[in-house]
Amino acid sequence: MKIMNYIMFLLVLSLFMPAVSEAEGTLQSKIDEAKKGVTIEIEEGEYEETLVISKPIILKGKGEVLLRSCQAEPVVTVSGESVTLQNIKVEHCGDEKEDTAIYVTGTNHKLEGLAIRTKRFGIRLDHANGVTIQDTEIVGMKQGNGIDLWESNQNTFGNLKITNVTDGIYLEKSNGNTIHRNDIQRSRYGLHLMFSNENVLDENVSKANITGTMLMESKRTVVRHNKFLSNNKSVNAQGLLIYMSTDTEVTRNEFISNRVGIFIEEAENNRIDSNKIMDNFIGVQFKKSNENHVIRNTFVGNVNDAQAIESANNQVNGNYWDAASKVDANGDGESEIVYRADPYFLTLTNAVPEYQLFFQAPGLILLQNILKSPADQLLTDSAPLMNMTMEVEKEKSTSFSLWFMSVGMILASTSLFIFGRKRR
């Protein structure tokens, strides 16, 4: 009888001991017990756990640390003030619409050295102010935004690498944020600002997205020293889309190999100044937009430099156009010959896409000179510059593209001639 009682005691003890040990050893319990201002180092390993941090502590990974969860709540929830997360990998494997790897609210938090894998959202800021997120990588599955802001102000995002998400960094009703030196690729929009004012986008690279950056109903945005590259994989692709936005400053950026370099739609009083606009299908396009200023830009190697539709009152002066005829009689650096960007070829190929085969063909150039586009589609630069405003490397991209296109047209013409004769 004593032996049976002893065995029963061991069985009961074995059932309770693991649970007690696990509870005592969880990361959440360490966070709950920690005093304000302390540093908690997480030992190397994988942790299937969700964390809630609401007091000013530092949570720091020591070696390879992975926090992972597939539950509905975020892997890490941060609130209060002055929480720091450092050197941690976070993976959210849930597939619900609102699933989020890290959720942040409160003030003055710092997230750095993170690596996030998510099926939905990477980091969501909800009424979060003064937050810094830097030196972090976010990889998604194009079902949620990399970083998503809602009514969150005065935050800083720097040195982030974001790929394969819906929008790289999405701002809605969020003002005064700084987005600096980030690399965003293979997403829908690299940067997406809606109803957000006085934000600064500086030295970012937005590449191979559908749209490099979209500004929608946003005021006083500064877009400077960024690179918008190869955003051309869709019929709606563009480097920068300014939609119903005002007082935007777009200065010293590079728009290279996009479908449309800059698209300005229903927008007024924006300034496009000293940018390199190169090797795009359309350099700059206006639609129902007035009182915008396009000055001191360098247009090189674009199939169509500019187009305006229902946009007659924009100031386009003092730009360099490689397609312009240039004569400087008085030595002031400006050509005496007015430059008119005629989108005849663009209009023609929109109606009949097959005509793209005849790009730069002598006959098409002759037709363009004879059959002018409507006046409201012409952008006129009355003082085109003799020299470029931004340095353009002596690349072979444009000349090679034109050569390749010419060879293609010759081959196409030859094949049509041969097969046409055979059918007869």
From TrEMBL:
Residues making up the signal peptide according to the UniProt record: 1-23
Annotated pathway: Protein modification; protein ubiquitination
Transmembrane intervals: 400-419
Matches recorded under SMART domains: PbH1
Keyword Transmembrane helix annotated: yes
Keywords: Membrane, Repeat, Signal, Transmembrane, Transmembrane helix, Ubl conjugation pathway
Stretches assigned to the Periplasmic copper-binding protein NosD beta helix domain: 134-324
InterPro entries: NosD_dom, Para_beta_helix_rpt-2, PbH1, Pectin_lyas_fold, Pectin_lyase_fold/virulence, SCF-Subunits/Alg-Epimerases
Superkingdom of source: Bacteria
Pfam family, one: NosD
Protein name, per record: Parallel beta-helix
Native source organism of the sequence: Peribacillus loiseleuriae
